[in-house]
Amino acid sequence: MSSFPQPHGAAAVRTGPSFGIDIGGSGMKAAPVDLATGQLTADRFRIDTPQPATPDQLASVVRELVEHHEWRGPVGVCMPSVVTHGIVRSAANIDDGWLGVNGEELFAESIGQPVHVVNDADAAGVAEMMWGAGRGRSGVVICLTFGTGIGSGMFVDGVLVPNTELGHLELDGHEAEQRAAASVRQRDSLDWKRWAYRVDRYLGHVVRLFSPELIILGGGASKRPDEWVDRLDPGCELAVADFANNAGIAGAAVLAPDLG
């Protein structure tokens, strides 16, 4: 695609190096990124997400991640939250103390660099639409990340509909991510076949609601697609994410502030 979709306040597209941080429910990962290709230009560095995942705790780890890579410049951060204009509006897999916090100001103060904060699945979707499985695709495309929870990034003709949070849809009387997130497979001692059945029911629900032309399957579970993707038949085209678990880092880096 010639351009990419932008959440509120995101920078204009640019080339050159950037830096992305992906905050998840279990781990925080960071690396510099080549914006021409979306590839990491150094090894990803990971630190376990502190428990409780309070604002001050996460800000401290963000500083450690930046210092590890000796990065100087703007930073993009994605996290498992609804984020509008830098302010965190939900906290499904982090501490409730985040609600109402301006994450951009907090992280910028911690690292001394400009920061842009976005939803994690939105960032992953941006990476897949720019360089990966969704590149050049029109119509409704949904990127779903299966990890601690289920994140979603929805695009209509290449334009992001931010903060969709489709993992919180109700399915069979439950919140969908409580039944079909990757973490649930271990929690409920499910083999891949039984977990894929739950995922397929969830995907079918998404298809009935939004009629996507393509669903991109990402997150940690996308590293083992042979175990479950062939068992899915939700009624639309499926693709495995090209960036797997690095999509959040790459997408966050794209959306880091542009200082001109």
List the helices and strands and how they pair.
Layout: E1 17-23, E2 27-34, E3 45-48, H1 55-68, E4 75-79, E5 83-84, E6 87-88, H2 103-111, E7 115-119, H3 120-131, E8 140-146, E9 150-156, E10 159-161, E11 170-171, E12 174-175, H4 177-180, H5 182-187, H6 192-210, E13 214-218, E14 237-240, H7 247-254
Parallel strand pairs: 1-4, 4-7, 8-13, 13-14
Antiparallel strand pairs: 1-2, 2-3, 5-6, 8-9, 9-10, 11-12
Helix pairs in contact: 1-2, 3-7
Could you walk me through the main structural features you see in this protein, from its secondary elements to its overall organization?
The chain is an alpha/beta fold and 260 residues long. It folds into 2 domains: 17-122 and 247-254, 2-Layer Sandwich (Nucleotidyltransferase, domain 5), CATH 3.30.420; 135-245, ATPase, nucleotide binding domain (Nucleotidyltransferase, domain 5, 2-Layer Sandwich). It has 7 helices and 14 strands. It has a 5-stranded mixed β-sheet with strand order 3-2-1-4-7. A 5-stranded mixed β-sheet has the order 10-9-8-13-14, covered by helices on one side. Strand 8 and strand 9 (150-156) form a beta hairpin. Helix 1 packs across helix 2 and helix 3 (120-131) crosses helix 7. It is globular. The chain starts with 16 loop residues before the first strand and ends in a 6-residue tail after the last helix. Mean pLDDT is 93; it is low at 7-12.
